[in-house]
Specification:
With about 220 residues, this protein is α+β, with helices and mostly antiparallel strands. Helix content is about 50%, strand content about 15%. It contains 6 helices and 6 strands. The chain has helices at about 5-25, 60-85, 90-115, 180-190, 195-200, 205-210, and strands spanning about 35, 40-50, 145-150, 155, 170, 175. A 4-stranded antiparallel sheet has the order 1-2-3-6. A two-stranded antiparallel sheet has the order 4-5.
Amino acid sequence: MKYRHVVFIVILILAIDQTLKFWIKTHMFMQQEFVIFPNWFRIHFIENEGMAYGLKFGGDFGKILLTMFRLVAVVVGFVYMKKLIREKYSTGLLICGSLILAGAAGNLIDSMFYGLIFNDSVGYEVAKFMPAGGGYGSFLHGRVVDMLYFPIYEGYLPNWVPFKGGDYFVFFRPVFNVADAAISTGVIAILLFQKRFFGKHMLPKTAEQEHPVAKDHVA
């Protein structure tokens, strides 16, 4: 696998992620929802100021810190991918790394620029791209657009369920985006197939590998 393949995967995921976010932001008002497949898949527009799946971190300062962390992680990620390619790591690992890198870059774009290029989604108003009055936030203070919602089960739990019996329950509740999905897919795949991905690189080097002998050496 070549470095250009990594770049291609990252650009492809970014294009899908940003195209969907751009459409959502300019065609839907906050909390608007479209049912794609009844009972399990909906497009549901929300924004979050923190980490993946709506998690938050440390208010305004935490927002800047998180955005800067994403920026550093993306830059280091591209450099590290070059190292993995030089050392001939498995194609599977490189694909997973590309997915994680693309996901981090996708949410980074939202955090860095969306506050500058979109006005706020308030009430039933749809946001405008590059509004005359300026965006809703400053550089590094954009909110991440989320829209993928999979409430696979919604209803009241049976009374015999420990602790939550009789409560209204939703599974799977988080609303996320393509970038989040790319990161999660990459991380989960690495955890599941780490032996296959890192196999030969985890083996101890032999004496011959550490101190190679010239082929024309005569005893």
